[in-house]
Design goal:
The protein is of the alpha+beta class and about 160 residues long. It is built from three helices and seven strands, in the order H-H-E-E-H-E-E-E-E-E. It folds into two domains: about 1-30; about 35-155, no CATH class. About 30% of the residues lie in helices and about 35% in strands. A hairpin with a 2-residue loop joins strand 1 and strand 2. The chain is globular.
Length: about 160
Amino acid sequence: MRPITVLFAGLLLALGAAAWIGVAVAQKDAPAKAADKSGFEGWKYPGAKKIGSGQGAGGYHAMLATTDALDKVEAFYEKKTGEKLKPDQAGGSGIGGGAGEARVFQDDSVQPGAKSEPRPVVVRILVNRAKGHDLTLVISRAKGEDHTHIALTYFPK
């Protein structure tokens, strides 16, 4: 009786492994959904120089730089996103959303502590989960630098 139990258990184990391998192969061979690059291109700041970029996992990313002032870059992305990107006070943040959408804004331009002294760099961060895409936007400019930097990550849905 014991050899039959071992044989039956081995057979079940082999069938389970074969089914798992078949599912893994089917998932690997499934064509990847083509990402919408045209949507990503529209998020690039006009005239900005590309520092680096890439794509993968259905999304795109780019690091850009422009000689335009921080305020001008913020105004462009405020118009594009419909979100305020300049806080009422340094170090401000906010979160909102609803019905499958979410927005998070953070300003990381102050030192820690009670005085909240300004940092030598202004950093604005926006994460926007919209119905058609997920976007992460980081805009920064350091004192004494000639460029405003823009980092974008975009995943179309």
